[in-house]
Write a structure and sequence with these properties.
Elements: E1 6-12, H1 19-35, E2 44-49, H2 56-66, E3 70-74, H3 81-91, E4 98-101, H4 112-121, E5 126-133, H5 139-154, E6 163-170, H6 171-177, H7 187-194, E7 198-204, H8 217-231, H9 234-263, H10 270-302
Parallel strand pairs: 1-2, 1-4, 2-3, 5-7
Antiparallel strand pairs: 4-6, 5-6
Helix pairs in contact: 9-10
Bound molecules: uridine-5'-diphosphate (UDP) and magnesium ion (MG).
Length: 316
């Protein structure tokens, strides 16, 4: 089978400390893929500068000058990891057959790329890189990250366990992805929604060799929250459940208030204060949950996701 025209997309935010190392490792590896006949000679590597404040863009410019295999894309400001990936992919969609996204720090083992390309040859349209061993991550990062995947799955978000943004996509998948018009692209949730035949490649997560993580805890939590709220109206449904529960409890308290009033346990004014208070606070919460249900529906609609994606038709 013919080798694939591959584009590697690498989002970079303040990565001056590691970019040269990443470039030299990747270009050696890329050449070996070309020699093995896995990818074409005109396959490229695209660095996307996500509004870095350090010398990242200067380094990308310099790499582009010295090596015509490198493509540089510079964003006007910091748009975030997911948008940087989308920019690199969409800018180059017409010129390549398949696309792999990988972090600039090469924590996701680049040696899995060959296996991904093999799976693509065998017919997989999406190949997910899955972290097999995370012992290089801190205990805290591992536990929080893994519980994140479990929580997401429990809330009905179709994420692949321990898969981040190291994945191969065929051009066809990328075209369909373009029909998901939402601004908040939580790619690990959306790519499985696009469908098509997929496969997995397992690799061990490595240490970051230079520079620091661009995902401190605060950003990680924000990312997780974004992922949940872009996919699931479950948190809103909880309000409704809680509202119904509150209302039932309120009814019991109302019965108690009335009973106390009838048997004459109460001081004047207590019943007329407690009764509306309990009744209305119980029903308020339920009404809020109900409004939430409709807002949830509106939210699903405004995202304007495609209703279906046709893969093939026969006897058209
Ligand atoms: N990144 C980005 N924009 C941002 C934050 C991060 O493009 O606003 C890139 C970053 O340069 C790296 C990748 O996203 O290539 C993942 O970041 P990092 O390795 O710091 O995350 P971690 O591996 O610690 O989760
Ligand atoms: Mg990293």
């Amino acid at each position: 089978m013919n080798p694939a025209r591959l584009l590697l997309v690498i989002p970079c935010y303040n990565e001056e400390a590691i970019l040269h190392l990443t470039y030299s490792k990747l270009s050696v590896y890329y050449n070996s893929l070309k020699q093995q006949g896995l990818i074409t000679e005109d396959s490229r590597i695209c660095f996307v500068n996500d509004g870095s404040r350090d010398k990242t863009w200067n380094i990308i410019e310099q790499l582009c000058r010295q090596d015509s295999n490198i493509i540089g894309v510079g964003l006007s400001r910091n748009f975030g990891h997911q948008s940087a990936i989308m920019a690199g992919l969409e800018k180059n969609i017409d010129n390549f057959d398949c696309f792999i996204t990988i972090d600039a720090d090469l924590q996701d083992d680049m040696n899995a790329i060959a296996a991904m390309v093999e799976k693509h040859r065998e017919g997989a349209m999406v190949v997910y890189g899955v972290r097999g061993d995370r012992s290089s991550d801190s205990w805290f990062k591992r536990v929080t990250a893994e519980s994140f995947y479990v929580l997401m799955q429990k809330m009905g978000v179709p994420v692949v366990f321990n898969h981040a943004d190291f994945r191969l996509m065929d051009r066809r998948v990328l075209q369909e992805l373009g029909n998901f018009k939402e601004i908040n692209m939580f790619l690990r949730g959306i790519v499985p929604l696009v469908g098509f035949r997929n496969d997995k490649v397992f690799y061990n997560r490595l240490e970051r060799e230079a520079g620091e993580t661009k995902y401190p805890l605060s950003k990680m939590l924000l990312f997780a929250w974004n992922g949940i709220t872009s996919f699931s109206t479950f948190p809103m449904r909880l309000v409704l459940y809680f509202g119904v529960f509150n209302f039932l409890v309120a009814m019991i308290i109302v019965a108690y208030i009335l009973f106390s009033y009838l048997v004459g346990y109460t001081v004047p004014g207590w019943t007329s204060t407690m009764l509306p208070l309990t009744f209305f606070s119980g029903s308020n919460m339920m009404a809020l949950g109900l409004i939430g249900e409709y807002i949830g529906k509106i939210y699903e609609e405004v995202k304007g996701r495609p209703r279906y994606i046709i893969e093939k038709t026969l006897n058209e």
